[in-house]
Amino acid sequence: MSDVIPSSLRPSCSSRVHTMPDNQIVAVADLARHDASVVRLWIGEGDLPTPEYIKQAAMDALKDDDTRYSYSQGLPELRQALADYHRRHWQVEVSSDRFCVTIGGMNAVTMAMQAILDEGSEVIMPTPAWPNARQMIEIVGGVNVPVAFDFHPDGNIELDLDKLFARVTERTRAVFINSPSNPTGWRMPLEDMRRLRDFCREKGLWIVADEVYNHFVYDGGGPAPSFLQICKPDDKLLVTNTFSKNWCMTGWRAGWITFPGGMDQLFARLCQYNTTGVASFIQRACIVALEEGDEFIAQQVARCQASRDVLVHGLTALDNVTVFSPEGTFYLFFKVHGLDESSLEMAKRILREAKVGVAPGSAFGPEGEDYLRICFAIDPELAKEALDRLTPFLTELAEASQDTTAYLEG
Description:
Layout: H1 15-18, H2 24-29, E1 39-40, H3 52-63, H4 76-90, E2 99-102, H5 104-116, E3 122-127, H6 131-139, E4 143-148, E5 150-151, E6 157-158, H7 161-165, E7 172-178, H8 190-203, E8 206-210, H9 227-230, E9 237-242, E10 255-258, H10 264-274, H11 280-292, H12 294-316, E11 321-324, E12 331-336, H13 343-354, E13 356-357, E14 359-360, E15 371-375, H14 380-409
Parallel strand pairs: 1-13, 3-4, 3-7, 7-8, 8-9
Antiparallel strand pairs: 2-10, 5-6, 9-10, 11-12, 12-15, 14-15
Helix pairs in contact: 3-11, 4-11, 5-6, 12-14
């Protein structure tokens, strides 16, 4: 962790911000952002452009001078489009006044934590986990309580709910669930979702559900179930989401949060005081994405499945690699056996020697050490190219490890 505040100013700055760790994914990406020879699989975004009809909607709105302040909670038309979208894909009725439009999914998580956490409030989070969510808990004064996934040698990942329940204390305020999960690709079974819901109801806890990757489920199994399908409008449930992944709109910075009935004024205020709302011309593009983008989502998912299959099949064939085949998201989490260096240093080495950019598992918490993450929201041909570069590198790594072991034993 590097000093981000000059020592002379540190005493008068927030200690919580000063102690934030560096983002290790960014640390790797910054080494070769402009190197065109690198296959870039580090950042969580697809390689397709935003569809033309979405861009056209924004340009039309700009031409119409739709550039003024708007409703803090979001355009009524967009919130109704969100209600229609949830009805279409999850067969659930959510009133339009239960949505608030946000500056991307990160802002949705920020406002969720601001809405429910006091100083010292604990949030239980399965880990390895998205680092941004972990840090936001601490930025607003909460305490992150990690519960490690169980990684099995056969490549399966499980979350032991009894282990999670055992971490609840009198300070626990919420359970954060990202399903399908970044970085592991784990998907929470519906029966476990119901069991967690019942437990949280009994204990008076919030569920904060990050459902960003619900459409990215493979082998015909999607979309993943939503907590909105099994919860009542007055349950303590906050669901965060974004336009970034489904419609290749990462740079547009638009998302949404779904909250219990009656909390609309609270979130309108939070939005006003955090950002004053999302640009109205971007919201017009979001409406079009929701109303016309279902076919694009399906095409993306099919494309990701093809790339996933290439990488899973190829990496599974290597003796020194355990692949956790993802049930969802567009991430592949895998373990390289016999490493004698950290996952961060290994990611840097892969970048230097194989010209493939991957994310170190330690970026997602100490439980991710010894693992690496690949984003496979890419063209299947590019996935083949990445595999062609990784295979000889990992094979040579295994041979070097065996030679070292033989030398030490001999």
